[in-house]
Amino acid sequence: MNFYDVLAERGLIAQATDADPRARFAQPVAAYIGFDPTADSLHVGSLVPIVALRWLQVCGHRAVALIGGATGLVGDPSGKSSQRQMLSREQVAANARAIASQLQRLLSEGPLTVVDNAAWLGPLGWIEMLREAGPHFSVNRMLTMDSVRARLEGGGLSFLEFNYMVMQAWDFWHLARTAGVSVQLGGQDQWGNIVMGIELARRKDGLELAGLTLPLITRADGGKFGKSEAGTVWLAAERTSPYEFYQFWRNTADADVARYLAYFTMLPLAEIRALTAEGGAALNAAKERLAWEVTRWVHGEAAAQQARDSARRAFGADHDAGGAAIPHALLEERELAAGIPLADLLVRAGLAPSKSEARRLISGGGVCLHDARIEDPQRLVTAADARERRLVLRVGKKRWFRFDIPAEGAAGG
After folding, report:
1. 28 exposed, middle or buried (CB, 10 Å; 0-12, 13-18, 19+)?
2. Fewer CB within 10 A of the terminal residue: the chain, N end or C end?
């Protein structure tokens, strides 16, 4: 399989620097994608570049994941309307380790090289960087790049961020010279940074490098991909539970199912077309297959099975929310003696960000206790509301939380 053909057929190519990018991948190459450690986990928006690395492995190329232990200290201005919050060196290093581990797990089925640009950018002196890189960059040229121009038109770009492009270009040149990397992949917003790296390598060493960008994923309704009602959907189970992760994919809009199966799974395109050819129950089955495939990849088969079983129980005819993977917590019976405001429980469950928002949800008819809609924002929940020592809350049609009430003396057992 030709790597470029595979990505093009699945809608995963936005731009290419080569006139004939397919020819570039006729022989094995080394290609890299960078990930800045702005948090201790990647999120679903990161899955497109990770999928690209996965296809590199499948197609017989050498996949390289670069962790931006140095560039993360600066912050990429691409696609941002304001400067990122600066993190401490210790936090960036901890995030880098966590993301490296995450990538190694997600890409464990093939060879993967993980590098951290702090290893070569960190020791560089200011004068050395100016002398080695400065002569090869035109400020006029840099100002034409979309990532820079958009920020200048929208309120300004700090000198710190202006240097990010130079650092990423240096990465590409360094990896080409030391590791034989000849292709950089990245999101569509990385085009300018990639092009500057190609130009730096050509001017310094006469190297002929190439770049491919991947599309920025949106929903069919134009909304931003990667957000749920609860916020960002993370790849770490500690941040987003496997059940919530599964439900994010299971709730995909009908118009997005075929695209997302092509983007985020390794299923053959013919199978995807067969899965999505009909609507109704068949399309719901396709959504379940999407949720299963992505959750199994990210969290493992056991977690995916548990999430799927719990979702089927939760959304079955009996609305049984007893599945272990559904978000849940203990609630001691004595807390219910005087009654707890339903709004407080919604906040504790993470189903509302504040008590005022919880009361608004209740007043709007968006909250159910078990299978009963509650519309009184002052409603108190007591032990009498429990069923089989459980309180099951639902916001909207898809978001669930269960409080388990242990028998007296069993809470600590």
Report:
1. exposed
2. C
